[in-house]
């Protein structure tokens, strides 16, 4: 398959420039200007649209195996590709959880031929799988996920000796969910005593408190400093935690920070409208946190942008607070939601590309993806600016069938997504068949 994309605004490695891009045999053959079409080549006139490397989402819960009423690899990767996300790294809190090499191999087998995007799977840590952590082949997983706070699935690691061992011996980057569980349990007990199980949703950030986040993130950083671990702290949700991280380029950092699109979009006042739709762990906090996180992206304190896409069914979300699960579907509108900050003048499009494509590729040593470079795989997104659309429930591709963004108008839209050189999304529907490949890690 040969394709020539002409008249695009390419955005890559800090630059934005007019140009053309040729795809051949799944890869980017040439980037230039005035490239002329060859015989048999399909020509796409991008007419000024942004041409970006496909986003790499390093934090998704696609629910397979075992939780497939909420989502599965096929449905959620389709939603991701519709949103311009061409690679994903999936979390281990499935049923069974991904706690050893066999469970990891099973997941790769499940994804083959069914994933619309390229895929990697994390190994999970537990209080009793230190051997599996120590002996992990670093080419088989982007990293090791440590729940240093309990969330969906029962994967809390709270044995101090085991935690120390994981940080000492992990052969890959460690990614952490940081929320101190005893702090949260004590706060939740207070709220249950006051309200019973029907706690108002806007109390979620007071139960899943900023103190809980700060305490756990401090512990993770202390452990990483003690052992020289490559640590990546996921989904930072508070201004308070930001002072624990250094500003600067991701290259050379041993400790990095991530936030997610929903923490840049929603804040406490939104609970009144959306209730449990935006209940997630860690919790969406105050307007001041949202502001500080946007600034931290602009100032390189936050290194990576991701989704924490975590679908639950609509029915599950209707339960009272104590039984309503945490997590929200995000992949389909994640990129356009991040681009709203570009339209609002908070940072430029090159920064979105850096945080959502280049940075995860660098952090996890992803081979030949995440950049517009000749010879790299042609994972690409065409985005039309100033082409507003409003999210409707009937357009949601996630299996759960709802979105916290319903009714929201975004100013840009994903006009096309290419995965491994093939058109997978044409702006209104999926095209062809799933063509995701297993991610490889150059380490
Ligand atoms: O809100 C969340 N949902 N946070 C997590 O850590 C897990 C996730 C899920 O799997 O539902």
Characterization of this structure:
This protein has 443 residues and is an alpha/beta fold. It has a domain at 54-363: Alpha-Beta Barrel (TIM Barrel). Helices cover 29% and strands 21% of the residues. The protein has 14 helices and 19 strands. The chain has helices spanning 73-82, 101-111, 130-134, 160-169, 181-195, 204-207, 210-227, 239-242, 261-265, 271-274, 287-298, 314-317, 331-343, 349-363; strands at 2-12, 15-24, 27-32, 42-45, 50-53, 55-60, 85-90, 118-121, 123-124, 144-147, 174-177, 231-233, 255-260, 304-306, 380-384, 389-390, 409-410, 413-419, 422-425. The strands form 4 sheets. Strands 1, 2, 3, 4, 5, 15, 18 and 19 form an 8-stranded mixed beta sheet that branches. Helix 4 (160-169) crosses helix 7. (4S)-2,6-dioxohexahydropyrimidine-4-carboxylic acid is lined by residues 61, 93, 151-152, 177, 280-281, 310, 325-327. Its EC number is 3.5.2.3.
